[in-house]
Amino acid sequence: MALRTPLYAEHARLGARLVPFGGWDMPLHYGSQIEEHDAVREHAGMFDVSHMCPVDIEGPDAQAFLRRLLANDVAKLKTVGKALYSCMLNDSGGVVDDLIVYLRGPAGHYRLVVNAGTADKDLTWLESHRTGFDVEIRRRDDLAMIAVQGPQARELTATCLPREMADSALELAPFHATECGGWFIARTGYTGEDGFEILLPADHAVDLWSVLLDAGVRPCGLGARDTLRLEAGMNLYGQDMGEDVGPLESGLEWTIAWEPVERDFIGRAALDELRASPERREFVGLLLTGRGVIRAHQTVLSNGREVGEITSGGFSPTLQRSIALARVAPGLGETCEVEIRGKPVPARIVKPPFVRHGRILIEP
Amino acid sequence: MSNLPADLKYTKTHEWVRDNGDGTVTVGITDHAQDALGDIVFVEVPENGRTVAAEDACAVVESVKAASDIYSPIAGEIVEGNAALADTPDAINTSPYGDGWIFRLTPADMGVLDGLLDAAAYEQVVADES
């Protein structure tokens, strides 16, 4: 049987369409995916993301351990609460998972939040590389996680938090977190909008969800989460990157800390080799100029020749057009075609993100 | 409970058929089908004059989630695709039996209509699926 989050009964009560996702039964939408998408762009929406897995890493060697395991460098985290996005790579430079790591204490306390479908694999990977490091790795299945996103998200969330928590939450800079009484509030998210991701004891989740609902925050499912993150140009693990395709060909070069050169993180040698290769594929955005909807795995063509593959595609409610992320041969120029049901449909190559903070960032 | 007009015929693949009384029929997808698909964002309707066999995939409905083939319930010749769906694909969500119709065709044999499901039989198909 699939796993259920502490909010499962709430989803059912709200009429959610529940679907299997990464071993969990999760809400796809509560009626209209597009209305939920628009609520996040224009007001505030919330997502039950309790299926994602927090992992606490502590101990004298926690920093050294994560500097070995992650392609980004946790030594950049100098103030408590600061967050960093990183890939965790395998030896061939493929992605074991992508995650956010937060610095929780000056004494090398870290919290990772990893994907639902990869959590077991990640834990095995972390455990298998701990030899020689004095670290404790603790999976936090006792925590639930609610993301509140949108232009009104922070203000509305603050009205739902105890006073002292609300004040420190409202003071948070982007990509920072604060903690109080077992609650962990981070100004991070996966929609291209401002907002919070709140980790809290599982038995508090229904209460917070209910007060957010009363405050007018719209419940949103995984469907809207996917169209929002696609518009925001954010990668989805297993689709835009994975164990066979690393950060250099997935638009994630910005997350690799090449300096200092002495830091020998797992996958570094493979990345160095690919970095110098003229064959290295580019990761681009596409805007469909013809009619139809681009879907993952469709073929990208240039003058009738196969030049790449769609990694994520769909309909953008904000642009009212189809958009996509694609991995293509280098040097394509400005246009291409996407093969949709056997027919080439014209598209423009653009630089993601498509939408950020409610604003369209590409020429229509 | 989804809306199932008693005067229509249905298929196992969730199309409905209305006898227009002038030798043509109108085809769309059921209320149950549009609800299962979610927000519909693009529709490809068949060209006029195209000859189709029963169960031919002849239109495509794309929701935010996925593309779905729509099958012709009976053999015949397409006489009209619903051009308005190019601008308002969501009419299938809001009015599956009205403005959201997908195409009209002239059946090769009108008698075939009798072999399609009635509302009660279709309701059973839906119940068996869930």
Percent in strands of chain B: 25-35%
| Poorly predicted runs of 5 or more residues of chain B | none
Number of spatially distinct domains of chain A: 2
- According to CATH, what is the topology of the largest domain in chain A? Gyrase A, domain 2
Family (chain B): Belongs to the GcvH family.
Subunit structure (chain B): The glycine cleavage system is composed of four proteins: P, T, L and H.
Cofactor (chain B): (R)-lipoate
Organism (chain B): Allochromatium vinosum (strain ATCC 17899 / DSM 180 / NBRC 103801 / NCIMB 10441 / D)
Please provide a written account of the structure:
The complex is a heterodimer of chains A (364) and B (130). Chain A has nine helices and 21 strands. With 364 residues, chain A is of the alpha+beta class. Chain A folds into two domains: 1-278, Probable tRNA modification gtpase trme, domain 1 (Gyrase A, domain 2, 2-Layer Sandwich), CATH 3.30.1360; 281-360, Aminomethyltransferase beta-barrel domains (Elongation Factor Tu (Ef-tu), domain 3, Beta Barrel). A six-stranded mixed sheet of chain A has the order 10-11-12-9-3-13. In chain A, α2 (33-42) crosses α8 (222-231). Chain A is globular. Chain B has a six-stranded antiparallel sheet. Chain B has a three-stranded antiparallel sheet with strand order 4-6-7. Chain B has a single domain, classed as RNA polymerase II/Efflux pump adaptor protein, barrel-sandwich hybrid domain (OB fold (Dihydrolipoamide Acetyltransferase, E2P)). Chain B has 130 residues and is of the alpha+beta class. The chains are: A alpha+beta (364), B alpha+beta (130). At the A-B interface, loops of A face β4 of B.
